[in-house]
Specification:
Elements (H helix, E strand, L loop, with lengths): L9 H5 L2 E2 L2 E6 L2 E4 L11 H6 L6 H6 L4 H8 L3 H16 L1
Antiparallel strand pairs: 1-2, 2-3
The structure holds protoporphyrin IX containing FE.
The site of protoporphyrin IX containing FE has 21 residues, from α2, α3 and α4.
């Protein structure tokens, strides 16, 4: 199934590579982790180093827990877009 994250090219995602604006691409999905950088138990440097490329391998290699993976989904840009669209749809009804 096509997902909205496909609308972002790796080029575009890689432009968000600073502490104030940080996206990572994991398993074909785009995550905006800007607000999480300071809290990340592995440090912000590893996440910043994982921008601008497919970070799936690095993410898996770090041995993230189930709860880390659940937390990660809350930063998924597609999810955010879906929530906003759902909200607008319900308001219009
Ligand atoms: C995308 C969102 C991410 C979330 C929500 C996240 C969350 C977490 C959490 C909760 C931990 C603590 C251990 C655990 O519960 O598994 C952790 C550890 C770690 N993370 Fe992430 N992480 C993310 C992305 C990344 C990325 C892209 C890298 C790239 C290398 C990375 C590297 C690490 C490393 C190396 C540790 C181990 C720290 C240690 O035990 O010393 N993480 N992460």
């Amino acid at each position: 199934m096509p997902t909205l994250s496909k609308l972002y090219s790796m080029q575009e995602a890689s432009e968000h590579n600073t502490k104030d604006d940080c996206w990572v691409v994991i398993d074909g999905k785009v995550y905006d982790v800007t607000t999480y950088l300071d809290e990340h138990p592995g440090g912000d440097d590893v996440v910043l180093a994982a921008t601008g490329k497919d970070a799936t391998e690095e993410f898996e290699d770090a041995g993230h827990s189930k709860s880390a993976k659940e937390l990660m989904e809350t930063f998924c840009i597609v999810v955010s877009v879906s929530v906003v669209l759902g909200f607008l749809y319900l308001r219009k009804k």
